[in-house]
Specification:
By secondary structure, the protein is an all-alpha fold. The protein has 18 helices and no strands. It folds into four domains: about 100 residues; about 70 residues, Serine Threonine Protein Phosphatase 5, Tetratricopeptide repeat (Alpha Horseshoe); about 90 residues, Tetratricopeptide repeat domain (Serine Threonine Protein Phosphatase 5, Tetratricopeptide repeat), CATH 1.25.40; about 60 residues, no CATH class. It is elongated.
Length: about 375
């Protein structure tokens, strides 16, 4: 009876959390674990959902041996039956949902066609099939569905064996015209940086505005640069700083570097070398490998105490100092203040750093 009581308490304790855990969807967590890296929360969910019925079955059998006729009337028995029915209904709801989605897609609903295409692409509720995904996305796109247009553009842009930059651009343009924020963000980058298309900063500026307002980091960073352009953004450094801060608030390392640069130059904000240095360092901590600005500050003693050893360290870390140019000149100038032993020591510590681990080792 003690064993029964213990298991009953375990099942009861779990039931306290049942209303909070169940709506998250057991099946979704099993699918997530099958296709993504394991997370502690997923493991806890699946362990509990696997153990729970076993505990109830064991408790019910224990109770069944003692009071057969009372099983169905006990709270434990009722919960057990209701749980089985609920989980059975939940398991069958996926296939029922796919059937309903398929019916609506066949009847010409563009949103359903896009969603069905996504399910085929991701293998959710149906066998994975890019061919089926393309079929349904093309049907949705033919009706002007922006999500489907973007999906087709993204596939042509990124999928090996399917890459076609002209088709990708065509679909991105249609999706952007029909309001896809993702397409506007990607297309804006294409026109901002150039490459397959000729650079068009004015068009990039227009494309970035909506996604930037909705929190797209790339678009926010793009506006930060474009507002500084006197021909595009009127040289509005205050507005540039605003968008840089929005991107930096989402841990964008490049935007942090640009904030440091604006503080260093005193554009949009009063010049402040200490603040500039702190932003350059935050940028490095968040994965930016443009370390030479830190080296420059240490070399000149701007915003930080002058330190040629640290200057040399940061110059060495920056890949821009591997070729020629002003950073190489400054790197060598910093080295001229150091002894051969200091240089060897710094080089050994630089060798311990890697972009993958983003491990910073200031001397």
């Amino acid at each position: 009876m003690k064993k029964f009581s213990g298991l009953f308490c375990l099942g009861l304790a779990w039931l306290i959390f049942f209303p909070w855990i169940f709506p998250l969807g057991f099946m979704g967590h099993y699918r997530h674990m099958a296709t993504h890296s394991l997370e502690l929360f997923d493991i806890v969910i699946c362990v509990f959902t696997a153990v729970y019925p076993c505990v109830l079955i064991y408790c019910s059998l224990e109770y069944y041996r003692r009071r057969v006729l009372s099983l169905a009337l006990t709270p434990l028995g009722l919960v057990f039956v209701m749980t089985l029915l609920t989980m059975a209904g939940f398991a069958s709801s996926g296939s029922a949902g796919i059937g309903s989605l398929s019916d609506r897609a066949e009847k010409g609903d563009p949103a359903a066609q896009y969603n069905l295409g996504y399910n085929y692409h991701a293998g959710e509720g149906v066998p994975q099939s890019d061919a089926e995904a393309f079929k349904w996305w093309n049907r949705a796109a033919s009706q002007g569905n922006a999500d489907a247009e973007f999906a087709l553009g993204y596939m042509y842009d990124t999928k090996p064996g399917l890459k076609d930059e002209d088709k990708a651009m065509s679909w991105y343009a249609l999706a952007a015209e029909h309001g896809s924020l993702q397409a506007q963000d990607i297309l804006g980058s294409m026109y901002f940086y150039g490459g397959h298309v000729q650079e068009d900063p004015e068009r990039a500026f227009r494309l970035f505005k909506n996604p930037a307002e909705r929190g797209f980091i790339n678009a926010q960073r793009g506006l930060c640069y474009l507002y500084q352009n006197p021909d595009i953004g009127g040289g509005d450094y205050v507005e540039a700083m605003k968008w840089c801060r929005k991107a930096a608030a989402q841990n964008d390392a490049v935007a942090m570097e640009e904030i440091g640069s604006l503080y260093e130059r005193g554009q949009g904000v009063p010049a402040n070398q200490e603040t500039a240095f702190s932003w350059y360092y935050k940028s490095a901590e968040n994965g930016n490998i443009n370390f030479a600005e830190l080296g420059e500050h240490y070399y000149a003693g701007q915003g930080v105490e002058q330190n040629y050893a640290r200057a040399y360290y940061w110059f060495l870390l920056d890949p821009r100092t591997e070729g020629t140019g002003r950073w190489v000149t400054k790197r060598d100038a910093a080295a001229a203040h150091l002894s051969p032993l200091q240089i060897a020591d710094i080089k050994s510590r630089v060798g311990e750093w890697s972009p993958k681990s983003q491990k910073l080792l200031p001397p």
